[in-house]
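User: Second chain of the day. Same drill as before.
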Amino acid sequence: MYGWIWRHLPGNTPVRALIALCLVLGVVYLLFTYVFPWAEPILPFNNVTVEE
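Assistant: Same format as last time:
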């Protein structure tokens, strides 16, 4: 999959690396902005109890 993306990016190696970095940053931004806040109530991380 990564090879397919790399082959379809325009430009030479430095330009491809810059575009790939922008794509990665965009995906990370979307994850932190939309996906993680949506999934937080579903995940059991807030249900922490310690019993003795």
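The chain is about 65% helix and 0% strand.

User: Great, on to the next one.
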